Amino acid sequence: MVNIDALRSGDRKVLAKLLTLVESTRLEDRQETEQILENLTGQTGNSLRIGITGIPGAGKSTMIEALGHQVIGAGSKLAVLAVDPSSMISGGAILGDKTRMQTLALDPFAYIRPSPAGKSLGGVARRTRESILVLEAAGYDVIFVETVGVGQAESMVSQMADLSILMLLPGGGDDLQGIKRGVMELADIVVINKADGDLQKRAALSEIDIRHALEFMRPRHRGWKPCVLKTSALQGEGVNELWKVILEFRKQTEQTGAFRQNRERQLCDWIRMEAREMILDQFDKDQRLSTADSVSKDAETSSSHITAARKLVNRFFELSS
Ligand SMILES: Nc1nc2c(ncn2[C@@H]2O[C@H](COP(=O)(O)OP(=O)(O)OP(=O)(O)O)[C@@H](O)[C@H]2O)c(=O)[nH]1
Ligand SMILES: [Mg+2]
């Protein structure tokens, strides 16, 4: 059993062990994880959860590292969860991140956790959410969830973050780098990174384009209008400003109540998702429903596969009531 007191007092070994447990899909580990999460209730929820998404190489990790030093300098503890949903396909390109955030990885007030490949987006989402809770119980007050943008990933992150940062590269032109409108709509702050050297001019053009595009978008949180910022994570330019905007977001949305509302909505969605998983799990496990005999009997006695499926559902609910 994991020692929760040690977790709270900042024992990194215990933290790593617990995160490994959360990531495990073995049944016994799952049961232990659920027990531990029960015991953590009341000690979670106290962090600022920041999602940061963008194409590979946009500079997400470099930015987190630059912001990280500010966060730690201001007396906070920072954690980074590097989630790579594309690892389901590619085998995990993001794992190099730990080495990229080198100085942060050495800081005793920072904790960086690259996420191993997951089988499904749902599994990755659950694990990331639960890891956030564990990190909060361990006293981390700012948690970054870094993920490569692959369409669904942005929406997954926005379902667990208090605010979402979308990181773009200077593009120019009006195509917005093929960024789909839906992805922009999920951002509270858009950052145009690598606004340095030869790219400065293009970054300025991109900023105009994006500011214009954002004007026509519906804000996600009451009291917050999505904004755009130019940065150079590498040279540390615009990093202070970005942190200020992040704090301003928190202040504004706390004042309007949108911050709390967002958390409540996320919790409700999460509960529904878990419930759905539980139902599916029970359905799949129930031998009485999975025997070919019973299903083929339904098929024989039904006018169509839809009627047969409905019979199966009814039997499931009868058996589980
Ligand atoms: N010129 C310039 N290069 C940058 C800047 N930020 C990051 N880079 C470089 O871009 C490359 C990718 O940076 P990362 O921070 O690893 O990018 P990432 O978005 O985390 O990449 P993935 O995790 O692979 O998706 C590195 O070589 C960085 O040094 C910047 O502001 N300006
Ligand atoms: Mg990265």
Tell me the layout of helices and strands.
Blueprint: H1 4-8, H2 12-23, H3 27-40, E1 48-54, H4 60-73, E2 78-83, H5 87-90, H6 97-100, H7 102-106, E3 110-114, H8 121-137, E4 142-148, H9 152-158, E5 163-168, H10 181-185, E6 189-192, H11 200-215, E7 227-230, H12 239-256, H13 258-285, H14 287-290, H15 292-300, H16 305-320
Parallel strand pairs: 1-4, 1-5, 2-3, 2-4, 5-6, 6-7
Helix pairs in contact: 2-8, 4-12
Terminal Cα separation, in Å?
Answer: 34 Å
Secondary structure tally, helices: 16
Main sheet record: 7 strands, parallel
Question: Which CATH first-tier class of the largest domain would you pick?
Answer: Alpha Beta
Total strand segments: 7
**Gyration radius from CA atoms, angstroms:** 22 Å
Structural class: alpha/beta
CATH topology of the largest domain: Rossmann fold
Regions with little confidence, pLDDT below 50 for 5+ residues: 88-98
Helix content: 55-70%
Give the topology string: H per helix, E per strand.
HHHEHEHHHEHEHEHEHEHHHHH
Report the β-strand fraction as a percent range: 5-15%
CATH architecture of the largest domain: 3-Layer(aba) Sandwich
**What is the averaged pLDDT score?**
87
